[in-house]
Design a protein that fits this description.
The protein is of the alpha+beta class and 269 residues long. Helices cover 30% and strands 20% of the residues.
Amino acid sequence: MPIVQHPACAEPETDVRVCRFMDFDKFRDLFASEELYFRRTDLFKETDPSEGLPPDAYVRAIRGLTKYDLNDERTLNNDLAFARQNSEAYFISCWQLFAGETLEMWKRYGGIAVFTHYSFLKSAMAAMLDPIFLGVVKYGEKDMTGYNLIRFLYTKRRSFENERELRVVVQSYDPLASGNRNFDENNFAHREPLNELNPIHAWVHECKRRRIELSKLVTEVRLSPWATARDFDEVRTWVKVKNLSCAVNPSDLTSTFTPSPDELRKFES
């Protein structure tokens, strides 16, 4: 199925380099299975409670709601819960528009970065059977317009803008889903679906996995500044076993002056 075109999904130039930071377990999984992992969007609320949701103030402005008015606050709750339940039908693979390494990215997301070009990633996604959305995340709601759930998926708070995220989103609806799982026994609308009272269907999984050809996607594998000789040996073995021609390189930040993760944590505290 062709990639779905949407006004919220702005594409970068085709030759832009993109990468995905990951830990060793995720790298092994990617190379062993040759499958991309897509996580269900609503589960990202563990680290970002606003994931996939519009800001309260934006909803009030668009919907003409008055803050602290009881009925309007219930409407706000229901709108946010509907957006959250809608996000259960979307599964995300997060990439980064590469503009250089930072120690923060290595420390936060893992010891390996897999590189490709945007055109290669787009080509791999265009071969999928699912509806696929592909675009650059925008940061801050200043320029956000309309009331569109896809736009909410592609807008994050400004505190995340250093991530320069490129999102690949698989759409996979539950055909029997309800948008009312946020209502309790008293018919009160909560801001989140009430999974204990109205659980999500068991067949809605936490992830999707989609097969890709590593040889047509991966152009480089780069290891963190703290990688060991054993780490390099393992990555080179994976590349050899998969018969890939991609380079295996150390981080640009590798140096005897590079602080260790423990030293970074002490500095930040």
